[in-house]
Amino acid sequence: MRLRNKVQRPDETTGPDGRAQPGAAGPGAGDMRRIFGRFATGITVVTAGRDEPCGMTANAFTSVSLEPPLILVCIQRNASMHDTIGECGSFAVSVLAAHQEREARMFADHKRPKGKGSFDEVDTVAGPYTGAPVLSGALAWVECRLTTVYDGGDHSIFLGEVQALGHSETADALLFYDGGFHRLEPGVLVSTST
Ligand SMILES: Cc1cc2nc3c(=O)[nH]c(=O)nc-3n(C[C@H](O)[C@H](O)[C@H](O)COP(=O)(O)O)c2cc1C
To answer: Which atom of ligand 1 is found nearest the CA of 60?
Structure first.
Protein backbone atom coordinates (compact mmCIF):
# COMPACT_ATOMS: atom_id res chain seq x y z
CA MET A 1 0.00 0.00 0.00
CA ARG A 2 1.32 3.48 -0.87
CA LEU A 3 1.40 6.07 1.88
CA ARG A 4 0.37 9.58 0.84
CA ASN A 5 1.81 12.79 2.27
CA LYS A 6 4.58 10.99 4.05
CA VAL A 7 6.03 13.03 6.90
CA GLN A 8 9.06 12.62 9.10
CA ARG A 9 8.99 9.38 11.06
CA PRO A 10 10.60 9.28 14.50
CA ASP A 11 13.14 6.69 13.33
CA GLU A 12 14.27 9.06 10.55
CA THR A 13 15.71 11.44 13.13
CA THR A 14 18.60 9.00 13.57
CA GLY A 15 21.15 7.93 10.99
CA PRO A 16 22.04 4.36 10.01
CA ASP A 17 24.37 4.21 13.02
CA GLY A 18 21.46 5.04 15.33
CA ARG A 19 22.95 8.41 16.31
CA ALA A 20 20.95 11.64 16.14
CA GLN A 21 21.25 13.42 12.80
CA PRO A 22 22.04 17.14 13.02
CA GLY A 23 19.05 19.23 11.97
CA ALA A 24 16.62 16.30 11.95
CA ALA A 25 13.34 17.35 13.55
CA GLY A 26 10.21 15.53 14.68
CA PRO A 27 6.80 16.32 13.19
CA GLY A 28 5.74 19.97 13.31
CA ALA A 29 2.38 21.42 14.35
CA GLY A 30 1.19 21.36 10.72
CA ASP A 31 2.00 17.64 10.39
CA MET A 32 0.22 16.89 13.66
CA ARG A 33 -2.90 18.85 12.57
CA ARG A 34 -2.97 17.16 9.13
CA ILE A 35 -2.50 13.62 10.41
CA PHE A 36 -4.83 13.89 13.41
CA GLY A 37 -7.39 15.63 11.21
CA ARG A 38 -7.85 12.12 9.78
CA PHE A 39 -9.24 11.01 13.12
CA ALA A 40 -12.95 11.86 12.98
CA THR A 41 -14.28 13.19 16.28
CA GLY A 42 -17.39 14.64 17.76
CA ILE A 43 -17.29 18.23 18.98
CA THR A 44 -17.97 19.53 22.47
CA VAL A 45 -18.23 22.84 24.26
CA VAL A 46 -16.52 22.67 27.65
CA THR A 47 -17.92 25.11 30.22
CA ALA A 48 -16.96 26.08 33.77
CA GLY A 49 -18.05 28.72 36.26
CA ARG A 50 -21.41 29.75 37.60
CA ASP A 51 -21.43 33.58 37.82
CA GLU A 52 -18.68 34.38 35.29
CA PRO A 53 -18.84 31.28 33.11
CA CYS A 54 -16.33 30.40 30.41
CA GLY A 55 -16.93 28.19 27.35
CA MET A 56 -14.58 26.70 24.78
CA THR A 57 -14.93 24.36 21.81
CA ALA A 58 -12.94 21.14 22.26
CA ASN A 59 -12.67 17.82 20.46
CA ALA A 60 -9.89 16.41 22.66
CA PHE A 61 -12.48 14.74 24.87
CA THR A 62 -12.71 11.07 25.74
CA SER A 63 -14.24 8.65 28.16
CA VAL A 64 -11.48 7.11 30.31
CA SER A 65 -13.00 4.78 32.92
CA LEU A 66 -16.41 3.34 33.75
CA GLU A 67 -15.68 2.41 37.41
CA PRO A 68 -15.10 5.08 38.60
CA PRO A 69 -16.70 7.14 35.82
CA LEU A 70 -13.85 9.28 34.47
CA ILE A 71 -13.47 11.44 31.38
CA LEU A 72 -10.71 13.76 30.15
CA VAL A 73 -10.41 16.96 28.17
CA CYS A 74 -7.17 18.49 26.88
CA ILE A 75 -6.99 22.28 27.05
CA GLN A 76 -4.31 24.62 25.69
CA ARG A 77 -2.34 26.25 28.47
CA ASN A 78 -3.00 29.74 27.09
CA ALA A 79 -6.80 29.33 26.72
CA SER A 80 -8.96 31.23 29.21
CA MET A 81 -10.69 27.94 30.04
CA HIS A 82 -7.41 26.52 31.34
CA ASP A 83 -7.28 28.55 34.55
CA THR A 84 -11.07 28.74 34.93
CA ILE A 85 -11.38 24.96 35.30
CA GLY A 86 -8.56 24.90 37.85
CA GLU A 87 -10.21 27.66 39.88
CA CYS A 88 -13.71 26.12 39.74
CA GLY A 89 -12.60 22.55 40.42
CA SER A 90 -15.42 21.38 38.17
CA PHE A 91 -16.56 21.58 34.55
CA ALA A 92 -19.31 20.52 32.16
CA VAL A 93 -19.05 19.11 28.64
CA SER A 94 -21.85 19.50 26.07
CA VAL A 95 -21.58 17.16 23.07
CA LEU A 96 -22.84 19.13 20.09
CA ALA A 97 -25.66 18.09 17.80
CA ALA A 98 -25.57 18.59 14.01
CA HIS A 99 -27.46 21.91 14.24
CA GLN A 100 -24.89 23.45 16.62
CA GLU A 101 -22.09 24.35 14.19
CA ARG A 102 -22.65 28.05 14.95
CA GLU A 103 -21.94 27.39 18.65
CA ALA A 104 -18.85 25.29 17.77
CA ARG A 105 -17.44 28.16 15.69
CA MET A 106 -18.39 30.79 18.26
CA PHE A 107 -16.67 29.10 21.21
CA ALA A 108 -13.55 28.50 19.09
CA ASP A 109 -13.24 32.20 18.23
CA HIS A 110 -10.53 33.86 20.25
CA LYS A 111 -12.27 37.25 19.73
CA ARG A 112 -15.59 36.14 21.28
CA PRO A 113 -16.83 38.10 24.29
CA LYS A 114 -15.55 36.55 27.49
CA GLY A 115 -17.49 35.71 30.66
CA LYS A 116 -21.29 35.84 30.84
CA GLY A 117 -21.50 37.81 27.56
CA SER A 118 -20.21 34.84 25.57
CA PHE A 119 -23.48 33.02 26.32
CA ASP A 120 -25.83 35.91 25.37
CA GLU A 121 -26.80 34.30 22.06
CA VAL A 122 -26.77 30.70 23.24
CA ASP A 123 -29.61 28.81 24.85
CA THR A 124 -28.30 27.14 28.02
CA VAL A 125 -29.43 25.66 31.31
CA ALA A 126 -27.37 25.66 34.51
CA GLY A 127 -25.86 22.22 35.14
CA PRO A 128 -27.26 20.72 38.38
CA TYR A 129 -23.77 19.92 39.78
CA THR A 130 -21.46 22.66 38.46
CA GLY A 131 -23.93 25.50 37.86
CA ALA A 132 -21.99 26.01 34.61
CA PRO A 133 -24.01 26.52 31.41
CA VAL A 134 -24.96 23.34 29.56
CA LEU A 135 -25.99 23.94 25.95
CA SER A 136 -29.69 23.27 25.32
CA GLY A 137 -30.24 20.82 22.50
CA ALA A 138 -26.82 19.17 22.96
CA LEU A 139 -26.66 15.48 22.02
CA ALA A 140 -25.38 14.63 25.49
CA TRP A 141 -23.77 16.32 28.48
CA VAL A 142 -21.68 15.42 31.50
CA GLU A 143 -20.71 17.37 34.60
CA CYS A 144 -17.49 16.55 36.41
CA ARG A 145 -15.53 17.14 39.55
CA LEU A 146 -11.94 17.90 38.59
CA THR A 147 -9.79 15.15 40.08
CA THR A 148 -6.32 15.52 38.50
CA VAL A 149 -4.47 17.79 36.07
CA TYR A 150 -1.65 16.19 34.05
CA ASP A 151 1.03 17.91 32.03
CA GLY A 152 0.41 17.51 28.31
CA GLY A 153 3.03 19.73 26.64
CA ASP A 154 1.36 22.93 25.43
CA HIS A 155 -1.95 21.52 26.73
CA SER A 156 -3.01 20.21 30.15
CA ILE A 157 -5.05 17.05 30.57
CA PHE A 158 -7.99 17.54 32.92
CA LEU A 159 -9.35 14.33 34.40
CA GLY A 160 -12.87 14.62 35.74
CA GLU A 161 -15.13 12.30 37.70
CA VAL A 162 -18.64 12.36 36.26
CA GLN A 163 -21.24 13.61 38.77
CA ALA A 164 -24.24 14.13 36.51
CA LEU A 165 -25.04 13.32 32.90
CA GLY A 166 -27.83 13.21 30.37
CA HIS A 167 -28.77 13.20 26.71
CA SER A 168 -31.41 14.61 24.41
CA GLU A 169 -33.61 12.78 21.93
CA THR A 170 -31.62 14.30 19.05
CA ALA A 171 -29.48 11.72 17.25
CA ASP A 172 -27.73 13.85 14.61
CA ALA A 173 -24.13 14.58 15.56
CA LEU A 174 -21.75 17.37 14.61
CA LEU A 175 -18.36 15.98 13.54
CA PHE A 176 -14.91 17.39 12.88
CA TYR A 177 -12.94 15.67 10.15
CA ASP A 178 -10.11 16.74 7.84
CA GLY A 179 -10.23 20.31 9.15
CA GLY A 180 -13.96 20.80 8.55
CA PHE A 181 -17.38 20.44 10.18
CA HIS A 182 -19.64 17.59 9.09
CA ARG A 183 -23.02 16.20 10.10
CA LEU A 184 -23.68 12.61 11.01
CA GLU A 185 -27.32 11.87 10.37
CA PRO A 186 -28.90 8.42 10.80
CA GLY A 187 -30.32 8.64 7.27
CA VAL A 188 -26.85 8.89 5.75
CA LEU A 189 -25.02 6.54 8.12
CA VAL A 190 -23.36 3.61 6.42
CA SER A 191 -23.65 0.75 8.87
CA THR A 192 -20.91 -1.88 8.82
CA SER A 193 -22.75 -4.33 11.08
CA THR A 194 -24.55 -7.27 9.47
C1 LIG B 1 -13.30 21.70 16.11
C2 LIG B 1 -12.38 22.35 17.13
C3 LIG B 1 -11.87 21.60 18.16
C4 LIG B 1 -11.01 22.18 19.11
N5 LIG B 1 -10.55 21.40 20.13
C6 LIG B 1 -9.76 21.95 21.09
C7 LIG B 1 -9.33 21.16 22.18
O8 LIG B 1 -9.64 19.98 22.31
N9 LIG B 1 -8.55 21.75 23.12
C10 LIG B 1 -8.17 23.08 23.03
O11 LIG B 1 -7.46 23.55 23.92
N12 LIG B 1 -8.57 23.85 21.99
C13 LIG B 1 -9.37 23.32 21.04
N14 LIG B 1 -9.82 24.09 19.99
C15 LIG B 1 -9.40 25.50 19.91
C16 LIG B 1 -10.12 26.42 20.91
O17 LIG B 1 -11.53 26.23 20.87
C18 LIG B 1 -9.82 27.91 20.57
O19 LIG B 1 -8.44 28.09 20.41
C20 LIG B 1 -10.35 28.85 21.66
O21 LIG B 1 -10.40 30.17 21.12
C22 LIG B 1 -9.43 28.88 22.88
O23 LIG B 1 -9.96 29.72 23.89
P24 LIG B 1 -9.40 31.22 24.17
O25 LIG B 1 -10.02 32.07 23.09
O26 LIG B 1 -9.88 31.54 25.52
O27 LIG B 1 -7.91 31.17 24.05
C28 LIG B 1 -10.67 23.55 19.02
C29 LIG B 1 -11.20 24.31 17.97
C30 LIG B 1 -12.05 23.73 17.03
C31 LIG B 1 -12.62 24.57 15.91
So the answer is: 8
42-191 falls under which CATH superfamily? Answer: Electron Transport, Fmn-binding Protein; Chain A (2.30.110.10)
Who lines ligand 1 at CB under 6 A? 43, 56-60, 74-76, 79-81, 108, 110, 155, 176
Share of the chain above pLDDT 70, in %: 84
Q: Where are the domains of the chain?
A: 42-191
Higher pLDDT, 68 or 6: 68
| Dist. CA 26 → ligand 1 center (Å) | 23
Average confidence score pLDDT of the chain: 88
- 186: amino acid identity, one letter: P
pTM: 0.88
